[in-house]
Design brief:
The protein has 147 residues and is mainly α. It has one domain. The protein has a two-stranded antiparallel sheet. Helix 1 packs antiparallel against helix 3. The longest helix has 42 residues. The two termini are 40 Å apart. The model has no long low-confidence stretch (mean pLDDT 92). It comes from Illadopsis cleaveri. One of its GO terms (cellular component) is mitochondrial inner membrane. It is a peripheral membrane protein. This is APOP1 protein. InterPro entries: COA8 (IPR018796).
C-alpha cells in the first residue's frame, strides 16, 4: 500500500486458500493495546490461511483420486475422445463430498473452536480499544470545554 494510506488493504484471493489476504495498517503512534489487537487479527488471518490452504489442497487431491478410481472402475480414461476432462455425475460426486466431510469432521470441529477463540479474543481487544479511545475523546472534550 502507498505510504499515505491510513487503512487496511485487502488483496485478491490466495490461489491455495481462496482467502483474501489483508495488509494491516500500522498507525505511527500505535498503542500497546492497539498493537495487541492488530497482532491478534494477523494471527487469526495466518491461522485461517494455513488451515484453508491445507484443507483445499487435500480436497483437490482426494477429489482427483476419487474421480480417477471411479472412472477406472468403469473402464474409462481421465479424458474423453475429444480431449475434455471426464466427469462423474452429481450423485457420484455427492458420495465423495459426504465421505470427505465425514473424514474431516474432527478437523473442522477443531478449526471452528480455534476460530471462535480467535474471534472472542479479537472482539474483547476491540472493546478495550474502543473504551480507551472513548475515554481519551471525553478527556479531550472536557479539556477543550474548560478552555
Amino acid at each position: 500500500p502507498p505510504a499515505h494510506s491510513h487503512s487496511d488493504w485487502i488483496g485478491p484471493p490466495d490461489r491455495h486458500s481462496n482467502l483474501r489476504p489483508v495488509i494491516f495498517y500500522v498507525p505511527p503512534e500505535e498503542s500497546a493495546l492497539e498493537r495487541r489487537l492488530r497482532e491478534a487479527r494477523q494471527e487469526a488471518q495466518a491461522s485461517n490461511q494455513r488451515f484453508w490452504a491445507r484443507h483445499n489442497r487435500a480436497f483437490r487431491q482426494e477429489k482427483e483420486e476419487f474421480i480417477y478410481s471411479r472412472l477406472k472402475a468403469k473402464g474409462l480414461e481421465m479424458r474423453d475422445e475429444s480431449g475434455h476432462k471426464a466427469t462423474l455425475n452429481a450423485e457420484e460426486m455427492a458420495d465423495f463430498y459426504k465421505d470427505f466431510l465425514s473424514k474431516n469432521f474432527k478437523k473442522h470441529l477443531q478449526y471452528n473452536r480455534d476460530w471462535y477463540k480467535h474471534n472472542f479474543r479479537i472482539t474483547f481487544l476491540m472493546g478495550q480499544v474502543a473504551l480507551v479511545r472513548a475515554l481519551r475523546w471525553l478527556r479531550w472534550r472536557k479539556k477543550n470545554v474548560e478552555q
